[in-house]
Amino acid sequence: QACDLVLSWDGRIVCEDVSFAVREGELVCLVGKSGSGKTTLFHALAGLTRPASGRVLLDGEDITGRPGKVSYMLQKDLLFDQRTVVDNVSMPLRVKGASRREARAAAEGMLAEFGLEGAGGLYPSQLSGGMRQRAALLRTCLMRNDVVLMDEPFSALDAFTRRDMQQWFLAMLTRLRMSSVLVTHDVDEALAMADRIMVLAAPRGAGRPSTVAGVVDVPAGREDREGFLLSTEGLCARRRVLALLS
Fold first, then answer.
1. Euclidean distance between CA atoms 245 and 235, whole angstroms
2. Helix axes 129-141, 159-176, angle to 10 degrees
3. 95-127 pLDDT, tens per residue?
4. What is the number of other CB atoms lying within 10 angstroms of the CB of residue 238?
5. SS3 assignment, position 242
6. Residues 6 or more apart from 82 whose CB is under 8 A from it?
7. Listed range (76-85, 154-163, 198-207) with the worst mean pLDDT
8. 232: part of which helix (H) or strand (E)?
9. Cα torsion at 221, 154, 144, 2 (round to 10°)?
């Protein structure tokens, strides 16, 4: 939960009065134009930076400026080229004190579930773009937190791989019963994935700090999202998001 956050970057206020909550099992997409402060807000939610004011809560606990309380995945997969897949994805468990053997065993037990069966001994350079993202997401999930934050995780993929990864991620999110905040500038991606879309914009004019300009609910279930996107209801939701952005 974000409570009255005010965020600064390079000496200026980029976001203000940002408040919202993520429900259990929900995926919230945070949509905004370039420069709207999306990544700055992402870093504050992850505890990587402290807001100028306001608080970030997790189940009522103040986690403002405290990394490690939620899982997060950045735009780049940040896999180490000199390490195998299983050693890459098991790193969060090593950080938390597990032995190398224990961490590898836990990671190997989840490779198949993440579409990486037989890939544990490969190196990142031997993986496709989609497989690299699956490995990065498995590493994120092995942090074993109930909330996962993602900053445009599919932006570097081609259109077909991106669509497959979006659908796969939604299925994994449902299976693992995790809550998620996904940052994106892509309205269509937000409509394809979100339960709710929060639009970050500066409604009082260019050059002013951004805030949550509005919230758009996506009523369609995750299993029938393609039909929703082509429906009148889906097109109306898209127009609403675009109107809030402008």
1. 15
2. 20
3. 888 888 998 998 898 898 888 888 999 999 999
4. 17
5. helix
6. 123
7. 198-207
8. helix 232-245
9. -70
